[in-house]
């Protein structure tokens, strides 16, 4: 069966000047593709091959003997999710039920933005910042390397990749500038709202 590398939901130049064609070519075609290939090669012929990748991630999380498999499975999923979290002419603020819930759980959209940016900026080394639904409450969290909140029973709604390969060609060591641009110009709030509607 295997896990297919999804095509980008936008063209390679669609996010310029915020994220360059070069970054997307390396990030999607090299990094993401490698995680997918490594995962498929690792599960080929095993009982895991027919399982949805989310089930595999949850089943092997925390098993040190399967750390390599987990890293490739989670990174394959994380990246597929990440591409849908961004879009051309994104950013701004959500509306409707999601906006109401953010105001309820964070106090205001601005408070959410502050928390989300801080999660990305303070994630030491490689990792991810997330907006999740946790037992009915929206929370901002961060994970290192390939870790995913679904292994802690949380539902991912939005993620921001803060591995260097996500931004280094465009922003060098200025991670905060990438984070500002991600929030203000790139977030696909329609996708986040869809995830919230399914999970709520």
Automatic annotation (TrEMBL):
Annotated ranges, domain Manganese/iron superoxide dismutase N-terminal: 3-86
E.C. code: 1.15.1.1
Main enzyme class: oxidoreductase
Keywords linked to the UniProt accession: Iron, Metal-binding, Oxidoreductase
Record bears the keyword Disulfide bond: no
Molecular functions per Gene Ontology: metal ion binding; superoxide dismutase activity
Catalysed conversion reaction: 2 superoxide + 2 H(+) = H2O2 + O2
Coiled coil segments of this chain: none
Domain Manganese/iron superoxide dismutase C-terminal: 94-194
InterPro entries: Mn/Fe_SOD, Mn/Fe_SOD_BS, Mn/Fe_SOD_C, Mn/Fe_SOD_N, Mn/Fe_SOD_N_sf, SOD_C_sf
The keyword Plastid is annotated on this UniProt entry: no
Gene Ontology CC entries for this record: cytoplasm
Pfam entry (one): Sod_Fe_C
Binding site for Mn(2+): 27, 79, 161, 165
Family indicated by similarity: Belongs to the iron/manganese superoxide dismutase family.
Function: Destroys radicals which are normally produced within the cells and which are toxic to biological systems.
Subunit structure: Homodimer.
Protein name, UniProt field: Superoxide dismutase
Species whose genome carries this gene: Rippkaea orientalis (strain PCC 8801 / RF-1) (Cyanothece sp. (strain PCC 8801))
